[in-house]
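Hi support team,

I've been running sequence recovery on a batch of backbones for a student project. Most finish fine, but this one hangs at about 90% for roughly twenty minutes before it completes. I'm not sure whether the input is malformed or the queue is just slow. I've pasted the C-alpha cells below so you can try to reproduce it. Let me know if you need the job ID as well.

Thanks,
M.K.
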C-alpha cells in the first residue's frame, strides 16, 4: 500500500453533485480541514456558489465546475480544467445521483436509461478518468455514495435500487483491481437522510418512515459526510471494497 506524502493543504478532493444535500455537506467537511475542494454541479449554479462560499470561509482553496457526467466529452473537459488549475483529485467522491419513485410497470425506457446513466455510468466515467492520476502517485481514494436500497431493494424503487446495487458491485470489483496501486474504493450506503431526495414524501409518510427506524429519526447530511471523510484518511487504507450503511439501525 502506497504511503501518502502530501500535506492536507496539498490534497485535493472532487465531489460530484456537491451543490446541495449530502454532496454539499461532504464538500464543507473536507474544507474544514483545509483541503483543496472541487465542487461539481450539473445545473445548480447558484447553489454551488453558495457551497463554495461556505467552504472558502474555512480557508480552503475551492473550484466550482459544471459537467454532464453522462457525457465522456464533458468529463474530459472537466479533467482538462482541473489539470490546468493543478487540482487533480487525490480523492474522488462520486455523489451525483437522482432518485425515482414509482411502479416498475410505469418506468419508460427513457427514464430507465436516465437513472442508470446518472447513478451508475457517471461513476464508471469519473473513475476511469481520474484513477490514472491516483495510480501514478500510488495513492488515492474513490468513495461512491450508494443507498441502503442498493443492499435490500425497495418496492416502488426498483430502478433506483438497481442503479445503487450496481454501484455496490462496481465498488467491490474496482477495489480489488486498484488495491495493488495503493488506492481504496469504498461505498457509503445511507439510509433515510434529511435531503430533497425525500421531498416526494408527505409529512405523515415521513413520520411513518421515522417510526420504522430504531434511531427514531432521519440522518442529517453531516452524519454521512463524517463517514466519507473518515474513509478518505490515510489511516483508513486497510478499509477497502466495503459497502458501509449508516442507517440508524434500520437495516442490519
Amino acid at each position: 500500500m502506497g504511503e501518502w506524502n502530501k500535506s492536507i493543504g496539498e490534497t485535493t478532493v472532487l465531489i460530484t453533485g456537491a451543490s446541495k444535500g449530502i454532496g454539499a455537506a461532504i464538500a464543507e467537511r473536507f474544507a474544514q480541514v483545509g483541503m483543496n475542494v472541487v465542487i461539481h454541479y450539473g445545473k445548480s449554479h447558484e447553489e454551488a456558489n453558495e457551497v463554495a462560499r461556505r467552504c472558502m470561509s474555512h480557508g480552503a482553496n475551492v473550484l466550482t465546475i459544471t459537467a454532464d457526467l453522462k457525457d465522456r466529452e464533458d468529463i474530459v473537459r472537466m479533467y482538462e480544467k482541473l489539470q490546468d488549475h493543478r487540482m487533480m483529485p487525490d480523492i474522488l467522491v462520486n455523489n451525483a445521483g437522482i432518485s425515482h419513485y414509482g411502479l416498475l410497470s410505469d418506468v419508460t425506457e427513457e427514464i430507465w436509461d436516465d437513472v442508470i446513466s446518472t447513478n451508475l455510468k457517471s461513476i464508471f466515467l469519473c473513475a476511469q478518468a481520474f484513477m490514472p492520476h491516483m495510480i501514478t502517485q500510488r495513492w488515492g481514494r474513490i468513495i461512491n455514495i450508494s443507498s441502503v436500497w442498493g443492499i435490500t431493494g425497495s418496492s416502488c424503487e426498483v430502478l433506483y435500487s438497481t442503479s445503487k446495487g450496481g454501484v455496490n458491485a462496481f465498488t467491490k470489483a474496482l477495489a480489488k483491481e486498484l488495491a495493488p496501486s495503493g488506492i481504496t474504493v469504498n461505498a457509503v450506503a445511507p439510509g433515510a437522510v434529511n435531503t430533497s431526495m425525500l421531498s416526494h414524501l408527505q409529512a405523515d409518510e415521513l413520520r411513518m418512515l421515522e417510526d420504522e427506524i430504531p434511531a427514531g429519526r432521519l440522518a442529517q447530511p453531516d452524519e454521512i459526510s463524517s463517514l466519507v471523510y473518515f474513509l478518505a484518511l490515510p489511516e483508513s487504507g486497510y478499509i477497502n471494497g466495503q459497502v458501509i450503511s449508516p442507517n440508524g439501525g434500520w437495516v442490519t
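--
Follow-up from support: It reproduced on our side and the slowdown came from queue contention, not your input. The radius of gyration is 17 Å. No action needed from you.
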